[in-house]
Amino acid sequence: MTTSRAVQEIEQMAPQLAALSRELWEHPEVAFTERYTSRRLMSILREEGFAVDNPVAGLETGFVARWGHGKPCIAILAEFDALPGFSQKTQTTEEPEVPGGAGHACGHNLMGAAHTGAAIAVKRELEARGMEGTVVLYGCPAEEVLTGKVFMARAGLFDGCDCAINFHPDSVNGVDMHVLAGIDNIKFNFHGTISHAAARPYDGRSASDAAELMNVGANYLREHIPDGVRIHYVTTDGGKAPNIVANFAQTWYYIRARERAAVDEVYKRLVDVAKGAALMTGTTVEVDFQGGCYPNVQNKVLAQVITQSMEEIGAPVFTPEEKEYAAQLNRTCPQSPRRPYPVDPDVPLDETILGLYDEGNFAYNASDIGDVSHLMPSTMFGTVCYNMLSDLHSWQVAACTGHSIGQRGMIFAAKVLALTAMKLIEDPKLVEQAQAEWRQQMKGIQYICPIPPEVQPPVIP
Description:
Strand order of the largest sheet: 1-2-4-3-5-14
Low-confidence stretches: none
Strand content: 15-25%
CATH superfamily of the largest domain: Zn peptidases
Number of helices: 12
C-alpha cells in the first residue's frame, strides 16, 4: 500500500470527484460544444492556483492548466466530450434520460474528473514538499471526432512537456499495449441541379446519384487497398423527396489503418472516386476534410511505472450491490465478446490487476492521443469502470459511468495518475528511459500534422 501524499489527497477529494463526475455525466455535451464541462473544470483548477489558458488552438472549449516550474514536465490529458444519441438512465434496462440526447457511453465524464483530481493532487504534493517539477493538465475537447489533441499538436501546445499519461474507462485494470488506428474523417458534399423528377428530370443533375455512385465506387475500391485498411461511411443527406432531383447530398467517410501512410494513400484514391462520381453525374463535389489522427505509440517504460502504481495502490473492491448491478448488465450484452484477455461471463466486475497486455497487436479503434505519442513518450491505461461484457459506445457503459461503479474506477484511476506522475518527477531517470525508448520508436518517422493549416475547428453556436 502506497504512502504517497498525492494518493492521500485523492482519497480526501474522493467524494468531491465522484460528485464532479456525476455532474459532468448529467451535462453531456458532444464534440466542440463542451462549454459547461470545460468551464467547470477550469474554475476548479483556477481556484487551486493553476494558470489556465483558454481558448487554445482555436478550440473554444480547449484549455491548458499549468502549475509548477522546472523539470520534469508531466502532461495529463483530460477528455470530456459525450456521444450523440447515448442518453441513458443509471439502470439495468435501456431507457434514455433525454430521448435522442447525448450521453457518456465512453466515460469521458470520468476522465474529466480523474485527470483534474490527479493534477490537483500532484500540485499539492509538489507544493507541500517544495519540489521542482511541472504538471500540465490539457483539457482536450472533441476526442470522439479524433481532432481535439490534433489541433493542439498543430498549435505546438505540447512543446516543452517530457511525457504524457492518460486514463480511459475499461472493463479491466491494466495497460493495453495494442496499436490503435490512424484515421481520416471526411465529408463529401455533392452539388447538383434541382428539378422536378417527373416533369423535367432531364433538367436536373442529381447530387443523390453522385453520392450513391461514390459509395458504390468505394465498395469496389476495398478489393484493391492494403489488408487491414478499413473504409466505412454513412449517407447523411440523400435528398429531400423522391419527386425532386436532389441538388445536394452528403456522404461521410472514415478511413483507418495501422500506418498513417496507408491512410494518406487511400484518402487520395477515395477523393478520386468522389471526383469520378461527380463527373459521371454532371455534378460537383466539395471535399470537406474534418480531421485525422495518427496511430498511437505505447511507451513500455511508462506502462511499467503505471502498472507498479496500480499494484502499490491495489485494485478497487466493489460492493455486492455493484456486482449485482453489473451482473444484470452482463446479461444484456453479447456473451462472447472479443477480448485480448480471458473473459469470464460469471465475473461481473474484475477486481484484479492485469498489467501490460496485447502488446503489438492492432486494434481498429482510435484515439487522438496517437498524435501526442508522436511528440513525446505517452501511455494510456484503463481501470474497471463498467461491467465485464460491455463494449464502449453502448448504453450499458453509459449506465455505469454515472453510477458508483464508474466512480469507483475513476477514483482508482486518479490515484494511479497522481502516483505515476510523482514517481516520474521524483526519479527523472525514468523519464529519460521513456524518452530513450520513444526516440528508438520514432526512428525514421516524421510527424506531419494530418490536419492542414486551412482546416480550422468548427464554430458551433
